[in-house]
Design brief:
- The chain is α/β, with parallel strands linked by helices and about 270 residues long.
- It has two domains: about 160 residues, Rossmann fold, CATH 3.40.50; about 90 residues, Arc Repressor Mutant, subunit A (Orthogonal Bundle).
- Helix content is about 45%, strand content about 20%.
- The chain has ten helices and twelve strands.
- The strands form three sheets. Strands 2-1-3-4-5 form a five-stranded parallel beta sheet, sandwiched between helices. Strands 6-7-8-9 form a four-stranded antiparallel beta sheet, covered by helices on one side.
- Strand 11 and strand 12 form a beta hairpin.
- Helix 4 packs parallel to helix 5.
- The longest helix is centred in the first third of the chain and has 18 residues.
- The chain starts with a helix and ends in a 5-residue tail after the last strand.
- The structure holds calcium ion (CA).
- Calcium ion (CA) binds next to loops.
C-alpha cells in the first residue's frame, strides 16, 4: 500500500507539473514509469502448479512478460497450500503432479468453497479425461503442448469471467449426478430419473456415508410442511434401487433400521 500511494503521489506531482506548462522528457518518462508500476501492482495474480520445471519456468516467464504476477509450485501439496494462503485471480493446474494430483487439488479447493478460476493442463496422450477435469470443478482445460498465446487468452477470459460458485458433479463411485443438467449415470450408462427421484438421489449423494432419517429426506426433498405418508420415502428409495442398483447388480442405498438410509460413498 505504501508503494502504491507513493507512486500515485509521484504521478499526481508529474501531472501537476505538466499543467504548469513545464513538462520535461524526464517528467514524461517518470509518468510512464509510474503508470507501468501501477499496472504491475494491480497485476493479475496467477498460480502455476506444474512439476515439469522447464515448462513451469517457461509459463512463468511468458505470463510475466504479459504483465501477470506469477507464483510457481512444483507439486500438488505446495500448490494446494499456496492456493489456500493467497488470493489468486486464476490457477494453472497440471493434472499429473507428485503429492496431490491436479484433480484432487481442484476438488479440494471447491469443497472448501474456493472458486478461484482453474485452467487445467492435460497431456496429449490422454492421461486424463477432459470431462473429468471439468467435473472436479475446473473452469477450462488446455492440452499440452499449447501455444503460449492460447494460454494467455484463456487465462484472461477466465479472469474476466470471475468466480461464481457452481455446483460440482456429485459422485459416489461410478454413480454420478450433475446438479446443473440433472443428468444421472451409473458408469457409462445414463439413467432416466423423475425430478423427485433426482432430488432424492442428490440429497443422498450430498450426505453420502452418513445416515439420513426419513424426516430429513422429507424436509429436503419434499416440502417442509409435507403432511402425507412418510412411507413415500420408502417408495422412492425403492424406485432408485430399481433404476440405479438392481440392473447393475449393486447395492448403493443401505437401510439402517430405525434410523434411515445411508448411501455408500463408493456407490455400492
Ligand atoms: Ca505433470
Amino acid at each position: 500500500m505504501f508503494c502504491h500511494s507513493t507512486i500515485i503521489r509521484s504521478l499526481i506531482h508529474e501531472i501537476n507539473y505538466s499543467w504548469l506548462g513545464r513538462p520535461s522528457n524526464t517528467g514524461r518518462a517518470r509518468v510512464q514509469a509510474a503508470f507501468s508500476l501501477l499496472g504491475e501492482t494491480g497485476a493479475v495474480r496467477v498460480l502455476v502448479v506444474e512439476d515439469e520445471v522447464h515448462l513451469a519456468d517457461g509459463i512463468r516467464k511468458g505470463l510475466e512478460a504479459e504483465g501477470f504476477a506469477v507464483d510457481v509450485a512444483h507439486d500438488g501439496t505446495d500448490g494446494l497450500w499456496r492456493a489456500r494462503e493467497h488470493d489468486y485471480d486464476a490457477i494453472v493446474l497440471d493434472i499429473m503432479l507428485p503429492g496431490v494430483n491436479g484433480y484432487r487439488v481442484c476438488a479440494t479447493l471447491r469443497a472448501e468453497d474456493n472458486w478461484t478460476p482453474v485452467l487445467m493442463l492435460t497431456a496429449k496422450d490422454g492421461d486424463l479425461d477432459e470431462a473429468e477435469a471439468l467435473d472436479t470443478g475446473a473452469d477450462d482445460y488446455l492440452t499440452k503442448p499449447f501455444a503460449h498465446v492460447v494460454l494467455v487468452a484463456r487465462l484472461r477470459a477466465l479472469v474476466r469471467r470471475g468466480r461464481p460458485p457452481r455446483p460440482v458433479v456429485l459422485e459416489a463411485g461410478d454413480l454420478r449426478l450433475d446438479p446443473g443438467s440433472r443428468r444421472v449415470s451409473r458408469g457409462a450408462v445414463e439413467v432416466m430419473l423423475t425430478a423427485r427421484e433426482t432430488s432424492l438421489l442428490e440429497f443422498l449423494l450430498q450426505q453420502a456415508g452418513t445416515v439420513v432419517s426419513k424426516r430429513d429426506i422429507l424436509d429436503h426433498v419434499w416440502d417442509d410442511d409435507f403432511e402425507g405418508d412418510p412411507n413415500i420415502v420408502e417408495v422412492y428409495v425403492r424406485h432408485l434401487r430399481n433404476k440405479l442398483d438392481r440392473p447393475f447388480a449393486r447395492e448403493s442405498i443401505e437401510t439402517v433400521r430405525g434410523a434411515g438410509y445411508r448411501l455408500d460413498p463408493e456407490g455400492g
